[in-house]
Amino acid sequence: xxxxxxxxxxxxxxxxxxxxxxxxxxxxxxxxxxxxxxxxxxxxxxxxxxxxxxxxxxxxxxxxxxxxxxxxxxxxxxxxxxxxxxxxxxxxxxxxxxxxxxxxxxxx
Length: 108
Fold this sequence. Notes:
Blueprint: H1 7-16, H2 22-36, H3 40-48, H4 52-63, E1 73-75, E2 81-83, E3 95-96, E4 105-106
Antiparallel strand pairs: 1-2, 3-4
Helix pairs in contact: 2-3, 2-4
């Protein structure tokens, strides 16, 4: 069984948890459960009052690659995201916004 946090820490966690967004709650609960290892999930669910499906989703998100860290994609001027290697992807060197009209891609 997991050794529980001291009572003052539990009280702080219970005060802080409701102030988070839904996404942040499940990720926070998942991180705490992982830190506590065996029995951590049940303890965190009791402490936070979150549903086991919410915690399971948070744990799955911890193992996901964050969207800002995925490879194979690049942002174009105007916010369009294309896959690198797509026919419209420039094949020459890029100068990131330096001297390119309208924030586009220029040959460097």
